[in-house]
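User: My collaborator sent over this chain with a note saying "see what the structure looks like." That's all I know about it. Can you take a look?
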Amino acid sequence: MAGEGKKKIGTLAGRRRRNIRILMALAAVLVLAAAGTTIVVMQRGTATAAEDVVAAPPEPSPISATPQVAPLSDDAPMPTPQALAAALAPVVANPALGAFTGSVADALTGNVLWSQNPDTPMTPASTTKILTAAAAMLALPADHRVATQVVQGSRPGEIVLVGDGDPTLTAQPAGQPGYYPGAPRIADLVEQIQRAGAPVDSIVVDTSAYTGPTMAQGWMPDDVAAGYIAPTEPLMIDGGRISPLADESPRSATPALDAGRVLAQALGIDPARVTLGKAESGAAPVASVLSAPLRDRLGQMMRKSDNVLAEAIAREVAGAKNAERSFAGATASISQTLYDAGFGMDGLTLHDGSGLSVDNRIPARLLNETLTAAAGDTKPQLRPMLDDLPVAGATGTLSDRYASGDRTGAGWVRAKTGTLSVASVLTGYVVDVDGRVLTFALMSNNSPPEASRPALDAVAGALRLCGCR
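Assistant: Without extra context I'll predict from the sequence alone. Here is the result:
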């Protein structure tokens, strides 16, 4: 309920300090995103040797610059629960929010300052990625990479393209970017295969790294053609996009087989000579490329809300837990990883790692608890999540929010968005007018996104304006 006071978030109680360096950087990013910034670079003149030496002018007096971004302080006043509830009352009463739940906490202490039905399981949409990212950060090293390999086949002239869960492989020519920054290239595999010298006349594509169905419970049949997802296979070109550089391109229904065909064409082989199969145990390696580090892929996943990347990373978590790399194994591994880290799992139901499933359920309490942990000292592995969140009115899936009309939250709100036809969600953090960092999870169900998203933005904007003492 609203005004629960200084209730602690789970096991995160009693924390006295946060990493002020991170919060200083946060403030700088938010302020620079909110307003134009002029940077003046001062350089000393350089002199070259000459036969006639000219006397140098007197050294000028030092120039001092007044900082334009003040660091956040532990001493910034914390909103009181009563004043915060009063400030939020008008905006959370907006009927456009439909079925609404929420939780707001103080990032410095972990105190819950306001909540409304925070334990009610809600459809989270893409804010599911917050839990996927948190589990990945806790279960895997930040520099973890995924290999795509080529090994010798069972007969002369045959090679096997073995996918292990990297959907970012690109067929773009050298020097031209693929969809995913830092992605490995088909061209590099081709170079290694040709350097090996053995003739190749057929390709087998091995997708055995993943098990179970390729589409999750709660996904819609037309999600693939609409560009929201590709069938979850351990090998893809540019996330299975038909148009490799387009955000919302329709996706392939057979992304792994398509990757094999692209490799065949690059090698001058008839694409009809590409089949599905499995590499023999101990097959000799021919070529290999690596994905970008996990920390980079997580940032791409969060800023662009990339569903394909989220499902691949969810299966990396399953692999780290020695579970089957399937939807069931991935979601169970995410839940177990968070539970082992001390998060409460009550009310959590996951069918995927991306949030595309309309059958997922997450309570606002858990989403906000995760963000507060990322801002805290007890889970330093989660801290990069703060930088991975889009900036309102500036980057990622928030670039078009607060762009017109009420721009209160522009540059100050950083949050993961979630949007389905049945749900709009905003989970992140904001610096209030007193310089206090507040984390929040705001969840709207059963209201059309065109109505609920502006209503959620107004709630986050009210948090920004809140001195609330």
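A starting point for your reply to your collaborator: The first helix runs from residue 20 to 34.
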